[in-house]
Structure formats: C-alpha cells, structure tokens
Specification:
Blueprint: H1 3-7, H2 27-38, H3 49-63, E1 70-74, H4 80-87, E2 91-96, H5 99-107, E3 113-117, E4 129-134, H6 144-157, E5 158-169, H7 171-178, E6 183-187, E7 197-206, E8 211-220, E9 226-234, H8 238-247, E10 254-256, E11 269-275
Helix pairs in contact: 2-5, 3-4
This protein binds S-adenosylmethionine (SAM).
S-adenosylmethionine binds at residues 24, 45-46, 75-77, 80, 95-98, 101, 119-121, 135-136, 138.
Length: 276
C-alpha cells in the first residue's frame, strides 16, 4: 500500500472488511507481542503477575471449588493462567494461534499442561473438560457468527455440569474505543514493526452493528511503504450475551464485575459464568 491509497481510503470502513484483528498469528508480530504479554509495566496484552495471581485464585477456589479439574484455555497466550492453574493441580490445555506465545508456553510447560498452536475457530477442542475459559476481551474481536461457533464448540467440549468462563469488554468500553480521536506516533522498533516507522491510527463506531473499528497505517520510515492493520470489536449488551450462551446450550449466565468476583478499579471488562 502507498500513501495515495491511504489518502483515498474508505472514509467509513465496514466492520471486519479490512482485516479482523491485529496480526497475533504473524511470527514476527507474535515475537514482539510476547514481550508485551510478559511486561510488568502494563496490562495491555496479559495482566501483570499480581493481578493474574488473584484471578487464578478466584478460578481455583470459587469456580472450581479447589477440585482438580480439566481446563481448556482458549486464546491462552503464553500460558500465564494455565501454568499457574496446573501448579494448583488442574490439567490444562491451551490453544492459541500466536507461534511465539505457544513456543514460550510449551518451553515452560509444567506437568499437567499441554498446548496447541491453532485458530480456535477451526481447531478441534476435544472433550471432557470441566471448565472452558476465554478471557481478556478476545471474545468481542470475533465476528458474531464466529463467536457463536466458539460457544457451540465450547459447549460440546464440556462434561455434564461443566462451566464456561467468559471475560468480555463492556458495551461502553467498546463504544468509547470507536470514538478514540485519530492520532499517530513514530518509533524505532515497536509492536507493529521492527524497523523505524510512523503509525497513523483512527477509529470508527458503526452504529448499526455496534462495532468499533480501529485502523493502523504503519509507514516504513525508509521506504514509505504502508502496511494496514485493522481490528473490529463487537459491543454486546449483557442480555444479548446471555441469549447467545443460552442458544449455544448453556444455562443463563451469572455476571461478575471481574475475574476476582469483586469490582475492579477502572475495569472495562465483565465476566460471565455459565454451566451446562
Ligand atoms: C488479549 S490476549 C490474552 C491472552 C491470555 N488469555 C491472557 O489473558 O494472558 C488474546 C489472545 O488470543 C489469541 N487469539 C486471538 N484470536 C485467536 C484465534 N482466532 N485463535 C487462537 N488464538 C487467538 C491471541 O493470539 C492472544 O494470545
């Protein structure tokens, strides 16, 4: 892509038409993203260790009643939750399509943890799980038809009485994302490129479909070549989420303010827990 094409871009993008999400599955991007997952300076890709430990504690003691369980973590990233849950006696399987994250998870995999590199829309989940989890808002970044597919596959993967734990971005937080002012930055070597670059960002809110669309134009500072990334995030009202779960076979979910079960400061997420 070149700057002229940026200039002539669609002024109102269609949700998901220009790319579904940031390129988690690109090997070079995933290597850069892994650093962000592990960073203790921010909570952007994964939570920092102190928060993550509180989440694991709630999952272990309140959701699983401290009983050794089989857990499937969808979009597990570098296995920060699975490794800790395995340490508490659970058997965990993580699926993610980020090569660097899965490589990291496998290398540090404690007993009781297995991983698969794969897209959760197309990879088989297997069966016999007591808990399926999909956390940190990734659910919203799937098209609704893919989100429904993931729910049906999760239902099929669970034992009778098994549970589904979903952490989604709130409607209001997605709406705000769609109204972020356009901005830009320059960097030597950052998440979106290994070489010096300028990144132009803009956001949109699609009122009809309740979707926020983010665009990133990455301009290579040497060649002026442009790479476009785009991510669309679906906003869901709580009752729509509950209906989607029920349609997939689950009981009406309970809602919690965070993965500790308690209100969290500045939280843009909400947690649904359902069972079959
Ligand atoms: C926000 S990160 C959260 C990672 C992890 N759950 C955590 O909280 O530490 C979202 C993860 O979902 C993964 N992901 C996104 N879309 C995916 C897909 N279609 N199939 C498999 N993994 C996916 C990304 O690679 C990334 O690791």
């Amino acid at each position: 892509m070149n700057l002229l094409e940026v200039f002539h871009r669609d002024m109102v993008p269609e949700p998901w038409a220009e790319g579904e999400k940031i390129p988690w599955d690109d090997p070079a991007f995933s290597r850069r993203m892994l650093k962000e997952h592990l960073s203790q300076r921010h909570d952007a890709a994964s939570r920092r260790t102190a928060t993550l430990k509180k989440h694991v504690d709630w999952i272990h003691s309140s959701i699983l009643d401290a009983k050794p369980s089989r857990i499937l973590d969808l979009g597990c990233g570098p296995g920060l939750y699975t490794a800790r849950l395995a340490g508490l006696g659970h058997a965990c399987h993580g699926i993610d399509f980020s090569p660097a994250s899965i490589e990291y998870a496998v290398k540090r995999s404690p007993d009781g943890c297995t991983y698969a590199l794969g897209d959760i829309r197309t990879t088989g989940f297997g069966s016999g799980y007591d808990l399926v989890m999909l956390i940190f808002g990734e659910f919203n970044v799937f098209k609704p038809e893919d989100a429904n597919l993931i729910l049906s596959k999760s239902f099929a993967a669970l034992n009778p009485g098994g549970k589904l734990l979903l952490e989604v971005t709130t409607y209001d937080a997605v709406y705000e994302l769609g109204y972020q002012p356009a901005t830009w930055y320059s960097a030597e070597n950052e998440l979106l490129a290994d070489e010096p670059h300028v990144c132009l960002m803009e956001s949109f809110w699609d009122e009809n479909q309740s979707v926020a669309i983010e665009r990133y134009y990455v301009l290579d500072a040497t060649s002026a070549e442009v790479t476009r990334y785009s991510a669309s995030t679906q906003a869901y009202e709580n009752d729509r989420l509950a209906k989607m779960l029920v349609r997939a076979g689950f009981e009406t979910p309970d809602f919690y303010p965070s993965l500790t079960g308690k209100p969290a400061e500045l939280s843009e997420m909400i947690v649904l827990l359902s069972h079959i």
